[in-house]
């Protein structure tokens, strides 16, 4: 099985009218190269412009890929909150998005993101709560399971003032480790998907520490324990725009980097019939 993993596309057709055509070309190249599944780990859009999300949905649809067996998309903080803009025109828009990224508004925006790409998540019409969700695909010895989490944290002055910290809520961790889920994952090649980077870099200065605090995944050790219970072999994420692979407690973490920065560079994973796998960053 061949998986193509990309992240942090940051579509913004108002500022870059060519971005939708560019991502469509990349998607076409991925499937033309024989990849079985495309994973996108968040920050699909830059300033929470859902018109661009709907446009991406249409791209998948006309390319025959709007299906849960072909694509998995999860949200990042930019998809719900957007980004801080410090220009005279941007400060007001930033404040407005922040206020819309709390409480029921936050839940509504997260749900709307998933509704747009519903066919890539489930075929079950009665599903109303999306995360976590599990897919079992053909590949490896006994199937490849994708376990997807939302790591987007609602905005708050105290805990998430710039909107870019992440958190895998305890409810998600609990739901993922229920017996029926563990039974479904037993014996499979299990891959966890989330947006926020588990590791960023080791701080050397106070400025480094402040930056990492603003970007970090909160309570990451609890999430690591969840992944261990799920027997996760690979964890795919984005957020921090650096393509890299690192190992923690036997789990291979893979950050695909940013499509906006790297253009046609993807994280390519091949899972073999004996559950061995190979990985490399390639241009398509």
| N-to-C SSE string, H for helix and E for strand | EHEHEHHHEEEHHEHEHEEEHEE
Mean pLDDT: 93
Number of helices: 10
Helix/sheet category: alpha/beta
CATH topology tier name: Purple Acid Phosphatase, chain A, domain 2
Q: What's the CATH architecture?
A: 4-Layer Sandwich
Question: Any overview of this molecule?
Answer:
It is a single chain. With 284 residues, the chain is α/β, with parallel strands linked by helices. The chain has a single domain (2-283), classed as Metallo-dependent phosphatases (Purple Acid Phosphatase, chain A, domain 2). Helix content is 33%, strand content 22%. It contains 10 helices and 13 strands. The strands form 3 sheets. The chain has a 6-stranded mixed beta sheet with strand order 4-5-7-9-11-10, covered by helices on one side. A 5-stranded mixed beta sheet has the order 3-2-1-12-13, with helices on one face. β2, α2 (50-62) and β3 (71-74) form a beta-alpha-beta unit. α1 (19-32) packs parallel to α2 (50-62). The model has no long low-confidence stretch (mean pLDDT 93).
Task: Describe this structure in a few short sentences.
This protein is an alpha/beta fold and 284 residues long. It has helices at residues 19-32, 50-62, 77-80, 90-99, 103-116, 170-176, 179-185, 206-215, 220-229, 259-262, and strands spanning 2-6, 37-41, 71-74, 133-137, 144-148, 166-167, 189-193, 217-218, 232-237, 244-248, 251-255, 265-271, 277-283. A hairpin with a 5-residue loop joins strand 12 (265-271) and strand 13 (277-283).
């Amino acid at each position: 099985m061949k998986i193509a993993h990309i992240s942090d596309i940051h579509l913004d057709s108002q500022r870059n009218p060519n971005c939708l055509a560019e991502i469509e070309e990349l998607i076409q190249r991925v499937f033309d190269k024989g990849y079985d599944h495309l994973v996108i780990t968040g920050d699909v859009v830059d300033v929470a412009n859902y018109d661009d999300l709907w446009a991406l949905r249409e791209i998948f649809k006309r390319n025959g890929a709007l299906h849960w067996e072909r694509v998995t998309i999860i949200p990042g903080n930019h998809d719900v909150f957007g980004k801080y803009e410090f220009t005279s025109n941007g400060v007001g828009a930033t404040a407005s998005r922040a206020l819309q990224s709390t409480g029921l508004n936050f839940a509504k925006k997260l749900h709307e993101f998933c509704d747009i790409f519903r066919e890539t998540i489930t075929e079950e019409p009665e599903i109303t709560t999306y995360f976590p969700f599990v897919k079992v695909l053909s590949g490896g010895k006994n199937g490849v399971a994708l376990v997807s989490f939302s790591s987007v944290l609602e905005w708050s002055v105290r805990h998430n003032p710039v909107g870019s910290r992440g958190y895998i809520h305890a409810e998600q961790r609990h739901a993922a480790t229920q017996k029926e889920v563990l039974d479904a994952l037993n014996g499979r090649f299990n891959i966890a998907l989330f947006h926020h980077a588990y590791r960023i870099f080791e701080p050397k200065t106070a400025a480094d520490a402040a930056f990492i605090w603003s970007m970090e995944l909160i309570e990451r050790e609890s999430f690591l324990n969840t992944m261990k219970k799920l027997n996760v072999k690979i964890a795919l994420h984005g957020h921090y725009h650096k393509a890299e692979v690192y190992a923690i407690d036997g789990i291979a973490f893979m950050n695909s980097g940013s499509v906006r920065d790297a253009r046609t560079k993807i994280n390519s994973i091949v899972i073999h019939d004996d559950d061995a796998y190979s990985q490399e960053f390639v241009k398509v």
